[in-house]
Design a protein that fits this description.
The chain is mainly alpha-helical and 167 residues long. Helix content is 56%, strand content 10%.
Length: 167
């Protein structure tokens, strides 16, 4: 029970240490930045030396298996588990795109082939008389622009026509 309590307290302290709105962190910005630096350093060290990290965990388990297991429960759900979840989501993101039979994937195929830029319709073909991107009535010039392109199984692309001469 002691390890479970210490593990939960460690998780709460970890969360408080990363919260910029925590009263202690607001009144002690130097300590807050130092804690952030220590957290990043620990994550980098853990990713650069997984064998050393595993050895340190094994040594902790051999020293006191009961406390190690009890502390592992809240930490697996919290600070340590976040890294595992992030790795799992990253693996899912890199997985090949699979479509169910009969699924209409034309938009996905267009994005894979052409990228997030404009598709199929040339800018000059959007308006008559080959005057696009210049509006003959006002003399303003409009150009295509892609603001956001988020890849994925269901890609999201925001496009617009932008006036080239801002006043």
């Amino acid at each position: 029970a002691g390890g479970l309590i210490r593990g939960t307290a460690g998780l709460a302290n970890f969360a408080r240490g990363l919260n910029p709105q925590d009263p202690y962190n607001m009144t002690h910005p130097g300590a807050y930045v130092m804690n952030l630096n220590s957290t990043v350093t620990g994550l980098v060290r853990m990713s650069n030396d997984p064998v050393g990290t595993g050895k340190a965990m094994w040594d902790g388990f051999r020293e006191n298996p009961t406390e190690f297991t009890a502390r592992l429960i809240p930490e697996a759900l919290g600070s340590k588990g976040m890294g595992l979840a992030r790795k799992g989501l990253g693996a899912a993101r890199r997985a090949p795109h699979e479509h169910s039979p009969g699924e209409d994937t034309r938009a996905r195929d267009d994005l894979d082939r052409d990228g997030p830029q404009e598709h199929k319709t040339e800018n000059k073909d959007r308006c008559s008389d080959d005057t696009d991107p210049v509006d003959l009535a006002t003399g303003k010039m409009y150009l295509p622009q892609t603001d956001v392109a988020l890849p994925g199984t269901l890609p999201l692309v925001f496009r617009r026509q932008v006036e080239s001469g801002y006043r």
